[in-house]
């Protein structure tokens, strides 16, 4: 490996989170961002070509070295490392709403899921998967939530564009706005009738 | 009803209809489950049937998030009633009362699909471990502390929401103004010699005025400046100047 | 690398402590201790021969993968392994109470948060976010705390008036606020009358 690739490998080893190319480029002032990307590619290819037990992945906007999935079972059995606990259905649904609608307020999340969301929001915040990203202009100026880089990390995604597009889902939905109008119509109808 | 920790609970809705107690993440989830179980189209929900099944399920499951489920139950019952209303002619812009529910169900179903996708992604990612052993951090000056307003405001709201209920002992010091009342009574008696209780109170008296006046009257009576008379039981009190008192 | 060497690399990478050859041999029941030692030697040689940024060392009776000392200076400078310190939830909540109620005593903070505040107050003082601004006239003349200029600086605020007014906060300050107003009225009344 080249000296820069070596340095990058060492840095990625020493960090406990994904590092961006920009961050990595601060390691060596002579290295351009392009140099860093070339060297990272070299590391990645080396791991693959030489069949290392680890691989270099692009995650949450950065790069991270992780063990290959094939070794997970053996490592877990030997109890050298444990998997992150699974998210509950409520947590996943809430994350699903937030990741697609962000920035989004609690009321909208509750409307979509049909249940109150206070507890889930708090625990997702405590786990660092969502954060407050602003406040709405609406009544009471409610807090608006968005997902964090840790959310991407947890799901092994590079960025939010890795989420399935809505046209890739089996159920095709009309655009959000149109359906909101539909809802108003329905509400108006109910009022008129009742 | 079985204990909450019972692993499964049978619903009488159909053969082999067995659901996990904690299997539902909300009323929409339960509703989707009922529809799927009956192999019914979301777009054409038989509201009457599904409303009955929903009510039964909520009842039998003793769902702990009852408020959310009861809210949905009442919506369904309302829809059921609306579906019975005579329908205007088809081309008269008749809007299906189920439209909103259908929209919400479709939307929720989509969220569920994404949630499943996310669960799988997280599962895959959890099969890859990051580096476990990290050497002790070097002895460097700590990086600058970060703090931002949003984080602080969240904390403010956490504090506020954690306050159980405001226990407020409102002790308000409302000073009684006996002196002014005394002067007012003395001035009135100087003028008329005999006044009624309501005269002594003055116009639009507050509770403080009433108390102040009462204390002033008692004090003046004690001093012998006036006499308090009640001509008959339950009749209004009459305040009379005491000649002996004033001359004294 | 051989499959066993791969597996050992993945296990060493993911474990939070050095692993002995005996422990490592539990990963694969077909592997003898001798096999494990051969595979470890293979990993070590590979790292050296291919000039990786990390090396396999035998330390404290076990094996571990560590970054090479030559990269230490650059990595330390970049501070990847240190996350920017964040305030704990307890510290934030205490700070929240002080910022809105200052000058405020420990007893009131504890009453509002429902937990003892001694440790948190000390650490906030050490970090220069709060300071003693006086003593109460009350029993025992307790210390009163307020926020510091550093607090404003970190939040990017000119002065405390930049904090959102409590009536702009989402959650019902209502009961609380209404009573506070009531108290103000009462205070005004007392002043007007006395």
Q: How would you describe the overall organization of this protein?
A:
The complex is a heterotrimer, with 2 copies of chain A (194 residues) and 1 copy of chain B (248 residues). In chain A, the strands form 2 sheets. Chain A has a 3-stranded antiparallel sheet. Chain A has a two-stranded antiparallel ribbon with strand order 1-2. Chain A has helices at 3-14, 21-25, 33-49, 72-77, 89-101, 106-113, 118-126, 149-155, 176-193, and strands at residues 54-59, 62-67, 104-105, 130-135, 143-147. Chain A is built from 9 helices and 5 strands; from the N terminus they run H-H-H-E-E-H-H-E-H-H-E-E-H-H. In chain B, the strands form 2 sheets. Chain B has a 3-stranded antiparallel sheet. In chain B, strands 1-2 form a two-stranded antiparallel sheet. Chains A and B meet through strand 2, helix 5, strand 4, helix 8 and helix 9 of A and helix 1, helix 3, helix 4 and helix 5 of B.
Tell how many strands the DSSP assignment of chain A holds: 5
SSE pattern of chain B, N- to C-terminal: EEHHHHHHEHHEEH
Gyration radius of chain A, to the nearest Å?
Answer: 22 Å
Report the sheet with the most strands of chain A, covering strand number, pairing sense and barrel closure.
3 strands, antiparallel
Please name the defining characteristics of this protein.
heterotrimer, A: 194 residues, alpha+beta, 3-stranded antiparallel sheet, two-stranded antiparallel sheet, 9 helices, globular, disordered C terminus, B: 248 residues, mainly alpha, Arc Repressor Mutant, subunit A, two-stranded antiparallel ribbon, disordered N terminus
Topology:
The complex is a heterotrimer, with 2 copies of chain A (194 residues) and 1 copy of chain B (248 residues).
Chain A: H1 3-14, H2 21-25, H3 33-49, E1 54-59, E2 62-67, H4 72-77, H5 89-101, E3 104-105, H6 106-113, H7 118-126, E4 130-135, E5 143-147, H8 149-155, H9 176-193
Antiparallel strand pairs in A: 1-2, 3-5, 4-5
Helix pairs in contact in A: 1-3
Chain B: E1 8-10, E2 18-20, H1 27-37, H2 47-61, H3 66-84, H4 99-125, H5 149-162, H6 178-192, E3 194-196, H7 197-201, H8 207-223, E4 226-229, E5 238-241, H9 243-247
Antiparallel strand pairs in B: 1-2, 3-5, 4-5
Helix pairs in contact in B: 1-2, 1-4, 2-3, 6-8
């Amino acid at each position: 490996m080249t000296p820069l690739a070596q340095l990058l490998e060492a840095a990625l080893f020493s960090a406990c989170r994904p590092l961006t190319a920009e961050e990595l480029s601060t390691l060596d002032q002579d290295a351009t961002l392009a140099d860093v990307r070339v060297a990272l590619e070299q590391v990645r290819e080396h791991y693959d070509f030489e069949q290392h037990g680890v691989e270099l992945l692009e995650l949450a906007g950065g790069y991270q070295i992780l063990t290959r999935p094939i070794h997970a079972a053996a490592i877990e059995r030997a109890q050298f490392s444990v998997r992150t606990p699974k998210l509950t259905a409520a947590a996943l649904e809430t994350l699903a709403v937030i990741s697609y609608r962000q920035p989004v307020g609690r009321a909208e999340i509750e409307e979509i899921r049909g249940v109150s969301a206070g507890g889930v929001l708090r625990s997702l915040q405590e786990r660092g998967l969502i954060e407050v990203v602003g406040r709405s202009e609406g009544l009471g100026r409610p807090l608006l939530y968005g997902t964090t880089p840790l959310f991407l990390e947890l799901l092994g995604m590079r960025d939010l564009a890795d989420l399935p597009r809505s046209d890739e889902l089996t159920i095709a939905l009309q655009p959000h706005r149109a359906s909101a109008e539909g809802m108003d119509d329905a509400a108006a109808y109910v009022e008129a009738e009742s | 009803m079985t204990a909450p920790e019972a692993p499964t609970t049978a619903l009488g809705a159909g053969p082999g209809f067995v659901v996990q107690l904690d299997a539902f993440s909300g009323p929409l989830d339960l509703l989707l489950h009922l529809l799927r179980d009956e192999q019914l189209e979301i777009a054409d929900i038989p509201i009457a049937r599904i409303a009955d099944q929903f009510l039964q399920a909520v009842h039998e499951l003793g769902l702990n998030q009852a408020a959310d489920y009861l809210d949905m139950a009442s919506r369904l019952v309302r829809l059921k009633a609306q579906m019975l209303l005579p329908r205007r002619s088809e081309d008269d812009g008749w809007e299906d009362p189920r439209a909103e529910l259908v929209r919400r169900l479709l939307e929720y179903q989509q969220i569920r699909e994404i949630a499943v996708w996310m669960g799988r992604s997280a599962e895959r990612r959890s099969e890859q471990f990051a580096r476990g052993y990290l050497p002790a951090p070097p002895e460097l000056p700590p990086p600058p502390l970060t703090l931002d307003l949003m984080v602080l405001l969240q904390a403010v709201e956490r504090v506020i929401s954690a306050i159980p209920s405001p226990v407020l002992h409102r002790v308000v010091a409302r000073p009684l103004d006996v002196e002014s009342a005394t002067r007012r009574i003395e001035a009135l008696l100087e003028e008329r010699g005999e006044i009624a209780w309501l005269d002594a109170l003055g116009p639009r008296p507050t509770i403080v005025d009433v108390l102040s006046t009462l204390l002033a009257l008692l004090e003046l009576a004690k001093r012998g400046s006036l006499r308090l008379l009640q001509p008959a039981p339950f009749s209004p009190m009459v305040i009379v100047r005491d000649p002996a008192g004033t001359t004294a």
